[in-house]
Amino acid sequence: TKLSAEERTSVLSPLLATGWTVQKDRDAIYKEFSFKDFNE
Length: 40
Hints:
The structure is a single chain. The protein is of the alpha+beta class and 40 residues long. It has a domain at 1-26. It is 32% helix and 10% strand. The protein has 1 helix and 2 strands; from the N terminus they run αββ. The chain has one helix at 5-17; strands at 21-22, 29-30. A two-stranded antiparallel sheet has the order 1-2. One of its GO terms (molecular function) is 4-alpha-hydroxytetrahydrobiopterin dehydratase activity. InterPro entries: PCD_sf.
């Protein structure tokens, strides 16, 4: 089930503080990871 607005705010706050972003065009969060090479 989907989170309520209050639950969503409390759960997402720590994630948003660490580089995650809320997608505007859909109900999702996003974070891009960059690695130097495949083994990293």
